[in-house]
Amino acid sequence: MAAGPEEDHRAPDRDRGGLDAEAVGRLLGSPDPEALLAAVLEAADPGPQRTARIGVLYHCEGEGLLRMVAQRGVAEELLEPFRVISAEAELPAARVVRDREPLYTVPEVRDGAKAAAGAMPASPLAEYVALPLLLGSHGVGSMLLDLPGGELVEPARHRDLLTLAALGAHRLDQLLGAGRGRAGGAPDTGAPRMVPTQAPDRATLLEMAMASAGIGSFDWDLVSGRLVWDERLCRMFGIAPQDFDHRIETLFDAVHPEDRETLDQALTESLQTGRFTVRHRIRRRDDRAVRWIEVESRVVYGSGGQARGMIGVCRDVTDEQNQDEERLARKDFVLAITRAFTGAATAEDIVATMADTVLPALGGQRMAIFLRAPDGQIRLFGSRGFAPEHRERLDWISRIGADNPYLAPLREGEPMFLSSREEFLERIGDPRLEPLPGLHSWAILPLSTADGLLGVCAIVYHRPHVFSPDEQVLGAGLAGILAQSLARARLFDERRAHLTELQQMMLPRRLPPLPGLEVLVRYRPGSRGLEVGGDWYDALPQPDGRVTLVIGDVQGHNARAAGVMGQLRIAMRMQAEDGRGRAELMSRAGLTLYRMDTDLFATCCIAEICPASGALHVVRAGHPHPLLLQPDGSAAPLEVPGGMPLGIFPDETYPVTEATLAEGAVLLLYTDGLVERPGVDHDEAVAALCERLTHWGGPGTADPAPGTDLDRLAEQVINPAVSASFGDDVAVLLVRRNPAAGAAPVDTPPPSRAAPRP
């Protein structure tokens, strides 16, 4: 008979389950218990990287005892006390035979397998699975197998272990069932007992193993078209075995419409490769439930090499698929919040991201974040969903709860998941910390970094909420990401505050008295990371009563730009005090910058005003045109021909533009951060600014109190630019001619950027 395509002997994909076929064959033919245990270990984990395979095999004896018949990888002296154990012992090897279900040391398992701490020797069997070896309702023995590295037992892995236990039970009974003592005439103590069995053939053993693992089989005759399903496969599809009509169309009718093409393609390719494995959805006939199944099939070839049929097995992998999807969703969620936290620059930004994005995704209704202050104490930093009076209580709780012994797990980096008010009161143990009314569940996550406990994040639920193992793992991972992000953001806040303070030191803290003029300054640092800009302003009174106003912007957003700005501002003040005129002052500033050891340039605008006459002289070096708001409310740019920015050429000259500042009129000098927007034309942005000024300057809008309405105008001008958060610095200098103003110096307010909170 001609052979089909060469079989693929690659190792099975552990994530999708599967046993090593050759090892299973050796198991079924093992000559003694030692070989049986070795084959089980190899079949359970065929990977070549495993250098030590550890296991113990017990056989049920008479008088309610279990006798060790094989072991691998454990020192003999460690096992000496456990050679023979009572079937009533609380050891895992005995418990699993009584309970007839596996027992794991791994804390997170699937498919109903229990989690427990084993009583076997702690070393080297530190983490293992105990499996009962059963023939029907009778116990043959038990096996203990180590799980490498605290393995998370997924459904496919769990089914593989059950299959090995079923195969091992039959082979062990063949080897020892007729020779070693059975319960016989011993009194019935409830202990596991052996029953005489007839040694089944290999086909029977495989059939029983498939039954225990819930695997169905099929045989499809390609010549006649007849499809044969076993009883398990019929029930998997929701069809009574007697109602199955053996038509391939029945299979395709059950396949989910979106997966039919996938199955068609797999069947077509199998005729070329001789095998296929495919996972797809079906809709059961009886309850119309959608289930995922995985099909593995081989092509059967005739003597001439032509494909005559297919045989294969199917298993329901719905739970496995759902967990894969949940795992992928968790991964996407973690990546999404990581990206969100990365894009949040400050600690307050991260708290807002946590509240707006993470809290709803976790199903919580309230949130509070406590961070360690410079004095070492934990203090409330931010919250969401709590009333102001509740926030005061939260801050008070953070103070009195700092030394609560019941909160020691948090200080050690262990999260606390409290599913009810009763559990909260029981575990916290301090009546002063009784939760607010209406709160029923809490995920309290320690925010730990390499430097210790940074703080605590509490996610609060309005209803009782039982936290699944997956939610607890996700919460712990989230806490780590949040802690690292907050640590980075707090460092950012501190460095940003220092840079902003340095920049502010280079700007005038107050403007001198300017009789006849109302002057108001607004400055907002940009929001682009740790960058600081080179925007500056100044007011220089002249001996003859005139006033020289300067505004400028050094290229760049860094400490270097801020340093150049400080030097240039000081140089211009000194040159102005020497009595240089407007044009000469601008030219000398350009020469000064040109001679500096820098490749930066700067834009600048100088406006000289005579408060008595309103005479206005303006010089511009690549800077935005000033805006003039007339007393009648009209606003428009003041066209000022200018020259190149400062620092490009050493001998640049600048023309002077003459105009008049009427009594009550307002001159607006500003830097480009006020109007520049990505994708917005500069002229359109200036026109929109003039429109805002016109609305403000209309009839009935002026305030008789000097300065108050000018202050409101400044906010109206600058707030849209600041709220847009495009990152550039914004400096605004407003001047109104008012003969009654200017008797006192004008304070320059600090920038609006808040200093980092503790």
Automatic annotation (TrEMBL):
InterPro entries: Bact_Sigma-Reg, GAF, GAF-like_dom_sf, PAC, PAS, PAS-assoc_C, PAS-like_dom_sf, PAS_fold_3. One of its GO terms (molecular function) is kinase activity. Residues 276-329 form the PAC domain. Residues 1-25 are annotated as: Disordered. Residues 202-274 form the PAS domain. It comes from the Bacteria. Gene3D superfamilies: 2.10.70.100, 3.30.450.40, PAS domain, PPM-type phosphatase domain. Keywords: ATP-binding, Hydrolase, Kinase, Magnesium, Manganese, Metal-binding, Nucleotide-binding, Phosphoprotein, Protein phosphatase, Transferase. It catalyses: O-phospho-L-seryl-[protein] + H2O = L-seryl-[protein] + phosphate. It holds the Pfam family SpoIIE. Residues 1-19 have a biased composition (Basic and acidic residues). SUPFAM superfamilies: GAF domain-like (SSF55781), PP2C-like (SSF81606), PYP-like sensor domain (PAS domain) (SSF55785). Its EC number is 3.1.3.16. Primarily acts as an independent SigF regulator that is sensitive to the osmosensory signal, mediating the cross talk of PknD with the SigF regulon. Possesses both phosphatase and kinase activities. The kinase domain functions as a classic anti-sigma factor-like kinase to phosphorylate the anti-anti-sigma factor domain at the canonical regulatory site, and the phosphatase domain antagonizes this activity. This is protein-serine/threonine phosphatase. It comes from Streptomyces palmae.
